[in-house]
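Below sits our specimen:

——
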Amino acid sequence: MKLLKYLLALVVVFFAITSNSNAQGTARLVGGGSSALFNELGSASQAIPGISCIWTSGKTANIVARDPRNGSGFDEQGNFWVAWGPGTGSCATPAGTFDVYSYEQLDSVVGDRCFFLVDSGGVSGCTQIFTVTAGTAGANKVPGLTDTAIPSSVITAIQNLRYNWAGTDVRPEDAKFATVRAFAPCNALIPRQFFNQDSYFTFGLGYASLTPHVGVDIVEDPSVGTSVFHVLDFNIFGNDPQTNQPVPAYSTYSIGAQPIIVGVAPASDTAGIAGATDINGFTLTLFFQGVLGRTTDMFGPTTTRAVDVYVREPLSGTYNTFEYSVPNGTQYHASQDFSNCNGSGTVNQNPMGTGASSGFNIGVPAISGVTPGRHRAIGTGDMTTAINAGTATNNRLGYFFWSAGNAASRPNIKYLKVNGIDPLQDTYTANGILPGSGGVGDPGVGANITFSGLKAGNYPIWSVLRLVGSPNNAFIGNMLTALNTITGSQHDFVPLSSLKVWHSHFFINSIGMTTAQAATGNTIATANDLCTGTTAEGGGDAGGSVVTVAANKDFCSDFNVPQGLLNKTQ
């Protein structure tokens, strides 16, 4: 009898091992990009039919997006999630067949590059390097979800696969323009066909190197962190600039709109920077230009303190949304990188934020022993950490895309209205303490977050969140459907169904594409929003004029102009 029980036990173990070893995960979406989408996509993954398991990680050299054209020297790291279904087993030991989705938090331009790049063999996409040991516990990086230790079959499913989707908060045309600008010599004029239907010029940033299509790394201020941003070229039409292989066809899939928050710290210093509740566009521009550096340059503060300003990297989607919405728009004619070029046409400070001026401000003297300055912060996490560290003697100012995840554990930051408009709430409460941050008087993340200023088109700094992938990608369709199920609980963005305004689009005449190539992707929200029978959404839209969807439809109908007001691609 004992022998029989022993043999039965062996049979059970054998079939358990066989079931686990025969588990077959199929990666449906492998990719990454915008940090603004990390939490939302992670949460939505659990609403995809058959998916109920997740594992997450912080930055690690064991999980990287590798540019196969340039090798491991240009690996990109970021927070990571992978979601899967149990199949006929469990989350810990999936069995049979099951689907897998993954996303790495990089940046919008990196995400776009990692989708569009093509290696010398004609294969597109960054390589997902994943060398985590099976059974490793997760880091619970997506709020509200509990990780399962990662099974070996999930690792096998995504290991060394190529990117087939990306998340972005700027359109691919804007991402490509940001790259062109980074490679252009300092002070060189770069044409950007803007929404005023005339050529609008900005200047190059000077990060090119002697190696074609591979630029100088953009470096973070050491007082902020140790991150670097690789400057690598890519194309969204035609052939890859490095390998001359055809780039993949693509569509853009719109999700909704999200505001950028202007944040200050410390929230408790009401005599200093926390005395401000609002900032107008020109004052905001002058701070980020490096011209202003005192708290009393704003309305509200009664005591003059030094202000350190934190600037994202120029290839960040967050940087470009902020850049063309305020300082580098046609109203203010400035830039966050103003005067970071020297007389010889090369970058003056890389990293921005070091040197005798402690931040490269323009002539602002020390205040109580502290010299105001501008400092480069790479990535949303480093930006919010830097702002949150503000003190009564060293007040701080920066910006980031709103999300409950970005606000969490940032009790020292308050947000400002811009031009009198609140980006989040109907009523500016708790002296601007970030909802969900845990700060004093925290109003919490809930129904009070209405985005009414954005919905009305009055808040000036926002963009549409998008996914990029192959045309008619059914698995991106699964993710879009799942996203619709979480908008009521997340309070992170305005869903398309509630968005009544849109940024006008425009042809960018310096990124190597023709007007015939300018339209790609799905239409906005419904088939009629761009005008019946029109071409698909196309062109850049970072900083584009705000137009109501209703007005666009009426314009199309009244004047029989299928291009409409929103899609000015030529």
Remarks:
- Confidence is low (pLDDT under 50) at residues 1-20.
- The longest strand covers residues 251-265.
- The first helix runs from residue 2 to 21.
- The two ends are 84 Å apart (CA to CA).
